[in-house]
Design a protein that fits this description.
alpha/beta; Rossmann fold
Length: about 180
Amino acid sequence: MSAPPLRPALFLDRDGVLNEDRGYVSRWEDFRWIEGAREAVAAFNRAGWLVIVVTNQSGVGRGYYTEDAMHELHRRMSQELAAAGGHIDAFYHAPQHPEAQAEAYRHPDPPLRKPNPGMLLQAMQDWPIDREASLMIGDKPSDLEAAERAGVRAALFEGGDLMAFLAKEDLLPNPGVIPE
């Protein structure tokens, strides 16, 4: 059996890129989409890209909320994205932190936690990703560093309308062009 063809991936940080960063967002009531985020995800889906969220979630390790609460928030995000014609192929999270409350989450330099590239590298093991054609959008230098260390080009999103940012930076995929 042959391997599936490689596809480009859009890696997205969550807080500050997909949703407003209101500090440890873990409840749907506190979640607010970034303008243009749902449309951007759907545009990359239509172009045949994988869309993968890579998010540090130290709030889990710090004991502010549980992994179950985070998964429930991601489930709700997925529901709303489906209604807008988009989907996230996978969510990767890093609950570890050097100062985590629970020892299970405490690590001096967590390999999954950005700026380390662990989440991106794991996704590239799990999915047929074309590293050179992929793109990471983050709102912090640590997001860009993780992408660089994983060999993925990256762009810094400083807020506003995500779809407009991608268009202005000429980062939107060609519509209707499905990668071979």
